[in-house]
Structures are given as structure tokens and as C-alpha cells.
Amino acid sequence: MAHCEQVPTAALTVDTVLSRMRALDTALPARDGVAVFNRVYLAVTETVALHIDGGRFADAPAATALDVRFAERYLAAVDAAEEDRRPPACWRPLFQFRRHPGVRPLQFALAGINAHIGHDLALAVVDTCRTLGCEPVELEDEFDRVGDLLVSLEERIRDELMPGPDLLQIADPLTHLLGSWSLERAREAAWAAARALWALRRLPDIAGEFTERLDAAVGFAGRMLLTPLPD
Q1: Closest CA to 129 of 201, 56, 77
Q2: What pLDDT, in 10s, does the model give residues 66-87?
């Protein structure tokens, strides 16, 4: 498979992305919903950085660019919320419900992952292709490797944030919420959306409408994931 041209990547670097996330981790209350997701995403980004430094990506510059472009969209949503601007629709439920006492930490984590994978990842692939002057197919290996890391991390998140077996019974509403969303399906949908957006890049009106509808649909799913639950 051909590799992307090794041209300058995004304005941020993996190190600056990690610095921003670590600063957020320090500044936000531990129970804050954004803080819960940020800890998850920080762990993902640290793992990706280790894999890049360890030569586990065939095209390290492409993996770096994708990682940074991906993170930029989350950090832009955080900046928008902090500056009293409206973040993308996919992120609004997390910011709106971040302090709700009826929402459990696992819900916050999954809602953030939903927003970031369901919406941001597709746009990050397009951003990266524009940055590096390549086609989505040339990023597929890096996309798959990052996706594999996300799936393994989701399993860890469920283990760490899931209530104990005695609390999570079949009738528990959280059981049904968890069964309604899949990271693997979201990742597959993100790749399809990225390819569609790339194909539509010379039709900005249609691409814009596609992006807006994707944003709204992912935001709706996030709102469902954040349904307040009884103790």
C-alpha cells in the first residue's frame, strides 16, 4: 500500500495534545463527565504515542497526523464549551449532563467515545488526507490500528467503570444502554462516512449537509447514552 506524502502535519503535535489533556485531567473535578471521558482519551493517546515511538505503525507520520487531527476536534469542543460557544451537536449532551448526579461514569465515558468516534473520526480522516495529500485508502492501516487500540481500551473501560456483578443485573437500565451501542459498529460507520465525505469534497453543499446530519445523529445517540438512571 502506498504511503502518504511526508509533508508537515497539523499545528499541534502529539506532545502538545497530551499536555492539554493532562492539564484538563488536573483542572477538572474527578466526577465531572468531561473529566471521565478525558481520562479515557488521555490513556488512548498515550498508548498511540507509545506505539508510534515504538515503530508499531508502518507509516508513523500518517499515524501521527491522524492522531493529532483526531484530538484537535475533541479539544476544539472543549474550548468552545469553556468560551460559552456551542460545541458540535455530537458533544453537546456530554457538556450539558456533565454534572448530572443520575448519570454514571461509564455513561460519560461511552458518550464521549460515541461523539469522538461517531463524528470526529470521519472528519479527522478527511482532515488528515488534506494535510498529507493522500487518499483515505492510504490511511486505512493506521485507521485500523488506532481502532484496534480503541476497542481494547473500551474493554478496559467497561471493566474499570462497570458496576460490580451484584449491581449490574439483567433488569438494570444500564445493561440495556450498554447493549444499544457498539464501538466496533461506530468505527465501521466512521470509515464509511470518511470515504463518503472524501468523495463529496468537491460538492461542499452536499458535504456540509452530510456532516450536519451526521453530527445531529451522533448527538442524538449520545443523549440516549446519558439518560439519567436511578441508583
Answers
A1: 201
A2: 999 999 999 999 999 999 999 9
In this prediction the pTM is 0.89
Could you give the maximum distance between any two Cα atoms of the chain, in Å?
Answer: 54
| d(C-alpha 89, C-alpha 168), whole Å | 30
| Gap between the Cα atoms of 64 and 132, Å rounded | 11
C-alpha cell at 98: 456533565
Residue that is written with C-alpha cell 452536499 in the block: 206
Residue for grid cell 499536555? 19
Helices marked H in the chain: 14-27, 33-53, 60-82, 92-97, 105-115, 121-132, 140-161, 173-179, 183-199, 204-225
Rounded CA separation 10/91 (Å): 22
As a whole number, mean pLDDT of residues 203-226 equals: 96
Alpha-carbon gap, residue 128 to 130, rounded angstroms? 5
C-alpha cell at 41: 482519551
Q: Phi, psi at residue 141, to the nearest 5°?
A: -60, -45
Helix (H, G, I), strand (E, B) or coil at 1: coil
Dihedral angle sign, alpha carbons of residues 117, 90, 226, 45:
positive
What number is the average pLDDT over the span 39-61? 92
The span from the first CA to the last CA of the chain, in angstroms, equals: 51
Report residue 157's pLDDT band, with 50, 70 and 90 as the boundaries.
Answer: confident
- Give pLDDT tens digits for 80-121: 999 999 999 999 999 999 999 999 998 999 999 999 999 999
CA 144, distance to chain mean position in Å, is: 14
